[in-house]
Amino acid sequence: MSQVGQTTARALLRRLAVEQAENRVPSVTAAIVRDGRLAWFGGRGRVDGAPPTAATQYRLGSITKSIVATVVMRLRDEGALRLADTLDAHLPGTPFGHVTVAQLLSHTSGMTAEPPTEWWERTPGLKTGELLDRVGPGELKHRPGRRFHYSNLGYGLLGELVARLRGRPWLEAVEEEVLRPLGMNATTARPRPPHATGYAVHPWADVVLPEPEHDAVAMGPAGQLWSTPHDLARWAAFLAGDTGDVLCRDTLEEMREPAGVADGDSWTSGYGLGLQLAREGGRRLSGHTGSMPGFLATVWADPAERLGVLFMANTTSGMSGGLLTDLLDILDEHEPRLPEEWEPVAADPGLLALTGLWYWGPKAYALRVLPGRCLSLTPVVGGGRASRFVPQDDGTWLGLDGYYAGETLRAADDHLDLNTFIFTRTPYDPAAPVPGGVTGWKA
């Protein structure tokens, strides 16, 4: 079950073995996905006396949130809701009716982290009506939109939103729209054999304590699902861009855009729409961590490299934070990806005539043709407003990213009009329609 070389596989397995031994983890599995396929799998420890396999179930915990968020984004793409809709539009009667769907997805709603119940991860769950009866204005801890504040309760409400719009329980919607189409047939709401038992490991002795497992009911969308390394590898491939018919790639890219970030001089972690984000060693990763009593799991994807990496373990705490990035580093050290071979492509002569230098005032920009009649506009020297543009049916181009994302580029013989900014072939060309006019250069 490996596409990597023997030396690479050994180095990867050793890193996993160190993790399991030094952190006293009852069992742990890990996998790497490359180009949509399982490239490596490893397991250490024991589950019912045998090594764990790619078919052994573990709890996903909050990775469940990303799967629920995918259904919410499908509803958005279908026109059943807008991300700017308030909760009242679809789930009236809560004290949080003014928060938006986007704020719930991105944990910027200001809602409390945990529901007003007993420790929900270790006790039987409540039905939605019972949960909502307990929720009051005091569960709003921050002004909506003010800051990132992780909210399990928010995802419980998103699950109910899905249920009302789909007319069936959130779990059925997830199974029908995400799990089955992706072939994640071993991902279930409750454990099924072979599955790991969740344990807490004593901090000062080599003994374990079994952790309880219950149906979270209304809080299920926040962390209910169980899965296997095999299935989670398919989810990693999805996150890396192999979305099949489940979600438009553009929508997945939208989910990766940071809506909230950890405060600091430069952000290294944040949250999009249902996806956690991280910057590690030059990589831009998206995925999610998962934690439930007795279980830890994480899945990250690097779409730029078409890579995914994951681990699943049956321990309440103790895993190091660097396992997955270490595995990616080992893969990169031993088997770095080769760049795609360059080859020429056909280009419209009219597009070729647009290429080259353009000036925004005195600043030089380079316009290049990309595959699919797309364009890129980047500063020649230093930083600045770089963007890519995709062609539109009316002969214009639409900004794809950067400062000009969503803005329109129009091309004329002697100038470019980019959302009122005029780019000319020479700095402030007097023959071009430069707003304010051009009086000429002076000594």
TrEMBL record:
According to the UniProt entry, the coiled-coil residues are none
Q: Which Pfam families match?
A: Beta-lactamase, DUF7586
Q: Which InterPro entries match?
A: AmpC-like, Beta-lactam-related, Beta-lactam/transpept-like, DUF7586
Which ranges carry the DUF7586 domain?
348-425
**In this protein, which residues make up the domain named Beta-lactamase-related?**
20-319
Q: What is this protein called?
A: CubicO group peptidase, beta-lactamase class C family
Question: What organism is this sequence from?
Answer: Nonomuraea pusilla
